[in-house]
Amino acid sequence: YNKKIQEMNMPDDLTRTNSPDSKRINKAQEYELKYEAEKMNVAKDDIKNAIEKTNSTSRGIIEKEIKNDK
Q: Mean pLDDT per segment of 10 residues, for the chain of length 70 residues?
């Protein structure tokens, strides 16, 4: 029984060890918005607006968008 549970919880690709959303910003998570806003020295609303404008939650794309808007 325990072996079945372990097998079900194993990732398909063992080479992918990082969190699948570590490079994304979850706009529903207030702490993520706050962290990114502080890191980029902008308001949380600027992060939200960049997410909406680019239709992306990729940290890299959002950072580029914020830099372009400055």
A: 49 58 87 93 95 94 89
pLDDT value of residue 14: 57
Residue with tokens 């806003």: 37
The identity of residue 2, as a single letter, is: N
> Any alpha helices (H) in the chain, and if so which ranges?
2-9, 30-40, 44-54, 59-69
pLDDT at 5: 47
Closest CA to 32 of 66, 58, 10: 58
**Strand pairing partners for 24?**
58
Cα–Cα distance for residue pair 34/11, rounded to 1 Å: 30
Phi/psi of residue 24, nearest 5 degrees: -125, 155
